[in-house]
Each structure stands twice: as C-alpha cells, then as structure tokens.
Amino acid sequence: MIIIEVDSPSRDTLEHLAIINEHNPKPVVVFSKDHDSSLIGKAIRSGVSAYVVDGLAHNRVLGILEVAMTRFREYKALKDELNSAKTQLADRKVIEKAKGFLMKQKGMDEDAAFKALRKMAMDKGKSLAEVASSVMAVAELLG
C-alpha cells in the first residue's frame, strides 16, 4: 500500500501514481488539504483508492486503510474480469474467422471446420485461439 500526505498532489505525483498503477498496481491513499473536485477526480483516475481531505486523524487511519484495500481488491477483480472477457471475445472472433476460412477453402461445414481446428490444437498442444490465429496468418500470407 502507498500512503501519501501532501497539501495538494502535484501533476507529477499523479503521473507517477498512474505509472505505478499501470505497471504494479497497489492500493493508494492520499491525505490532502486540497478539496478541489477536479484534482480529486484526477487522483482517482491515477489509481488512488482513497482521497482523504482535511487531515489525518489517528483514530480514523485504520478504517481508511481497510476501505482503500477493499476498494482496490474489488477494482482489481473487476479489471481482471473485464480483461478476461475481452480476451475471450477476441479468441472467439479469431476462431470464427478461421472456421469461416476453412469452410470456404475446404468446403467443410461449420462442425467439421471446428473439429479440424480442435484436432490441430490438441495435436500441437496449443489453444484453439492460437491455432485459429495461425490459420488466419497463413490465410493472409496466401492472400
């Protein structure tokens, strides 16, 4: 967890937090005296999990850190789920294209094309999406 106490987070601080969030995400809590809503929005978009205005009361710190950690975990889970869904959709699209190519070039029906891709994937020890990508790469090469 990253904890920052500043009067007002600078543009450089927010840029550094965004870079950290992109490469090695961690929960971030900022304690600041600046209550500018546009600055708070920029901080949140930079990966800040909690932005606390007007000081650091010792009896509130533990609760704030726990909330920030929980929000971070939930955000990370949603982000991971979104990335997984995007990957599955992209895989599905390339598999459909490869099936269509095989159906057109080899005169196969959809089921036969899918079975051919699946067999090749099992024979090569690769995923169905990897094999479909390879088929489409060959299709592009052959024009």
C-alpha geometry: elongated
Question: How helix-rich are the residues, as a percent range?
Answer: 55-70%
Distance between termini?
A: 52 Å
Whole-number radius of gyration? 24 Å
Name the structural class.
Answer: mainly alpha
Number of strands: 3
Low-confidence runs (pLDDT<50, min 5 residues)? none
> Biggest sheet: strands side by side, in what order?
1-2-3
Strand and helix order: EHEHEHHH
Named at the architecture level, the CATH assignment of the largest domain is 3-Layer(aba) Sandwich
How much of the sequence is in beta strands?
Answer: 5-15%
CATH superfamily of the largest domain: Response regulator
Major sheet: 3 strands, parallel
Summarize the structure.
Strand 2, helix 2 and strand 3 (50-53) form a beta-alpha-beta unit.
What does this structure look like?
- Strands 1-2-3 form a 3-stranded parallel beta sheet.
- It has 2 domains: 2-84, Rossmann fold (3-Layer(aba) Sandwich); 85-142, Winged helix-like DNA-binding domain superfamily/Winged helix DNA-binding domain (Arc Repressor Mutant, subunit A).
- The protein is elongated and about 70 Å long.
- The mean pLDDT is 93.
- Helix 3 crosses helix 4, helix 3 (61-106) crosses helix 5 and helix 4 (110-124) packs across helix 5.
- It is mostly helical.
- The protein contains 5 helices and 3 strands.
- 17% of the residues are buried.
